[in-house]
Amino acid sequence: MGVTADKLKELREREAKIKEMGGPKAVAAQLERGKMTARDRINYFFDPGTFRELDMFMKHRGTLFGIDKVDVPADGVISGFGNVNGRQVFAFAQDFTARAGSLGEMHAKKITKVQDLSLRAGKPCVGFCDSGGARIQEGVDSLSGYGQIFYRNAIASGVVPQISAIMGPCAGGAVYSPAMTDFIYMVKNTGMMFITGPDVIKSVLGEIITQEELGGAMTHNSKSGVAQFAAESDADCIDQIKALLDYFPSNNMEDPPYVDSGDDPNRLCPDLDTIIPDSTMGAYDMKDVIRSIVDNGEFLEVHKYFAMNILTGYARLGGNVIGIIANQPKVLAGCLDVDSSDKATRFIRTCDCFNIPMLTIADVPGYLPGRQQEWGGIIRHGAKLLWCYSEATVPKITLATRKDYGGSYLAMCSSDLRADFSFAWPTAEIAVMGAEGAANVIFRREIKESPDPVAKRKEMIDNYKTALCNPYVAASRGYIDGVIMPSETRARLIEAFAVIANKRQALPPKKHGNIPT
After folding, report:
1. Which among 138, 77, 153 is positioned nearest to 109, based on CA atoms?
2. Residue 297: pLDDT band by 50, 70, 90 thresholds?
3. pTM confidence score
4. Domains plus CATH for the chain?
5. How many whole angstroms separate alpha carbon 483 and alpha carbon 422?
6. Which of 98, 184, 207, 428 is in Cβ range 3.0-4.6 Å of 76 for a Cys bridge?
């Protein structure tokens, strides 16, 4: 055997040793928890045979507290690039079997290299998080590593899609990198996020709470809104991420990918002609409207479990990607509140970053009243909607299906906020407020002085409805571009988006605006 053969053998042996990760015992423990290993996640995520690993032989430089005698394969993180559904993506996966995936100087260096390459190449970056946190033996070098990652999260924001998958523990300072990315996925029962864990909370505050209750997948999907997606398993999580990437361009200089869905652009939606209840107080499911309109009824909902009085998500119309923001009459009558305003605002900005046209579907009676909403800052949170719709330069189309009252009419992307087209169904009621409330204000004296106040109030309500609670007054002023048959909505929207597909709108030169907090 020659020198060359010996060198090749050595390379293969070194690779094989590193690919064993933390060893058979640690790998078995990972699998027993219902989790994939980091390498299994990478292999499942990328198209077969396309992943190219970077920095496999990276080693830590720690010397204190015995860490210098500890070998950490690949320094606890696998990083590289490959193809996902035929498109190039960069990724890293923390390896919990290797020193609990703890982050030290070189571990962070591997991640930041992938982040830098992702930004230079203009390709998405996905992180699979499963780590015990900072490598304490490396001290401030570990903290610096987190800071280097955070900086790159901020610089790449709005340039390339960044996605985080929480597949294990993610605590302390580690949570901030996922929070700075565009989307967070969490795996139920295994993915955890919190600043301080249950033990610290118990010792400081005396409160007893489980990890799952404190920072589990459904906690952050339904209560805090930190995470946008929940998954049943690692495989389900990765499948969901791959589906989301199909709706996104690789970077902010590209358009989202077109896919021929096979759904007729001129298809009518006759079910929509009867979907609005006869009573204005009646509820219906806005998801039925969305699924009827979009290609093949496919709607990838974002933030499904949080602020459910508003819907956000991605779909295709005529093969082209759109983002959808819609009030949900089934929940809080579709009212806007603090959480729904934040949810919609973040979604609007994400669409605008990545050149995704937006469809807004309005059925909104107003802002949710009450002390808690006012104390919670509904003014500043609600202002975000006005701000972000005004600032967004992608094509914007608004459809009013029923109630569209007052300030919430404006907040749901009225023509005044530069919606390119505003349409309404014949059932739309575009007014300052509902007829009942308006009659009580405008005709208070007449009702009070009438011999039959109940009959007089009904008469005044009917008069107000006839005069103002319809789409035609707004249409006569040019605020509504067309009153359309519900069944023709799909065809009209596809046509309108095609007209403004090449929209170009410039904002005044500035460093950046000062968005309401």
Report:
1. 77
2. very high
3. 0.94
4. 3-245 (3.90.226.10), 270-434+471-499 (3.90.226.10), 435-468 (no CATH)
5. 9
6. 98
